[in-house]
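Take a minute with the sequence and fold tokens given here and flag any structure token that looks odd. Thanks in advance.
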Amino acid sequence: MPRAADPLSQYNAKRDFALTPEPAGKVAKGAGNRFIVQKHDATRLHYDFRLEVDGVLKSWAVTKGPSADPADKRLAVRTEDHPMSYADFEGGIPKGEYGGGTVMLWDRGTWAPIEGKSAKDIDKGHLHFTLDGERMKGEWLLVRMKPRPGEKRENWLLRKVDDAFAGGTDDLVGRQLTSILTGRTMAEIAGDEGGEQSLKGAKGAAFTKKMLAAAAHNKKVGKPATKGKPPKFRPLQLATLVDAVPVGNGWFHEIKYDGYRAEIASSGSDVRVYTRSGLDWTDKFAPLVRHIAALDLPPCLIDGEIVAYGKDGNPDFSSLQAVLKRG
């Protein structure tokens, strides 16, 4: 997509700001590295992926949404640059207006090109970058596809790089269904016409005020966790020795952590730690218990492996035993 003298000219030309609550476009001063993803139920449901570059949000419409599976190459159609003020937008765009439909702030954070690369690689059609968001993390690729004869739109592919944050067949958009700003679902945002959280007619400072009110409202109406006694110990499902690794997509595999399998029963400040056989080892793991108590969790059982790391950064059983001896 060629650069325009005013990078927001297309954005402003497509919108009637007397009718839409979207902010008018102005190029922001200074350099930043924000990224956002907005779930957008317009003519078709898609996810708008945006990277801050030179005071605007470079934008792509990802038709199926981002995937944490490196094998998935998601079509990302380049769209017009958006203003930085759009980074906090959530609400309804009136039907009949450009992009009419419901918009949810689905993810946000910071981004950076990998070492030796830069944002200018967007013009080259190949951007290798990292994300540090609330939902999207690690290395990603945006690659421009070769245009077909007569094709007007600019098609790219968004793909997760295979790293520690890759999720295999993990369904990222299928699991994360609420706003990271207000905690609302798409239906709740869409049904808020004229209500306490409505953005109708809100612009500038009024828009920001309403967005803050939405977050405060969500916190106010959220039901606090009901505290009680920690759940009782439940026998753990243990691994079974077999001759061959199971095949098929119905299995998850993990490394063998060299530690103690444990079950933690928690409710607020009341925390118990049980061994795999049901022995109460709360006193042995007093520092861990204090940290879990500080989380103020609702009644729950947590199944996991308690480990200590050796000098090489890997789980080390002898280091764990030394910790237990020190108390």
